[in-house]
Amino acid sequence: MKKERLNKVIDKLKENNFIVKVVKDEKEAESCVLKLMPKNSSVSMGGSVTLNNTELLKKFREEYNFFERFLQPDWESTVNVMRESLLSDFLVTSTNAITENGELLQIDSGGNRVAGMAYGPKNVIVVCGVNKIVKNRQEGYERLYYVGPLNSKRLKHNTPCNFTGKCENCSTHMRMCNFVSIIRDGKRPFGNVIVILIEKEIGY
Ligand code: SF4
């Protein structure tokens, strides 16, 4: 990515009250996240290919009060943890698109990620690669519906796009894209949203 384009996005994000940190790779992103989080604080994590490329999940389980939603015995317990995690000290997640105007766009099946990014957790840290940068909202929406089928396949949701590889505009129970959110401003009651931008292509 051209430096001027990246700088423009960073400036716009800052104008919109996001705190921005730029790192070169996943390892640096990981230490940047951990430095921001006092040990033993409570943390929830959004499902994310980007974050799965780091050791953060392991660290959260070992050194923090982690809202463990990934290893619950059944869906009801998973949903209960997701509800409780809306009161965490930190939500660490990724986003699906960042516009050149400095907005974050995300798509969600259950809604817990878009809910937590909007309200609840005291602090929100967003980790993402520069490949998520798009020109505008229109390009962002296109990116969201490119991501839907990929997530459907990854999470084995029984949706048409899992099999065809493209959005079929379904209305199935396990739809990947029930919730779409735009965060236009990073202001929050306890501290603004922190965006850690990794200067490489990672996740989707
Ligand atoms: S609407 Fe259905 S087919 Fe389209 S991306 Fe969402 S889950 Fe897949």
TrEMBL record:
Domain LUD residues, every copy: 7-198
Q: Which Pfam families does the record match to this protein?
A: LUD_dom
Q: Which domain of life is it from?
A: Bacteria
PANTHER family on file = LUD DOMAIN-CONTAINING PROTEIN, LUD_DOM DOMAIN-CONTAINING PROTEIN
Protein name per the record: Lactate utilization protein
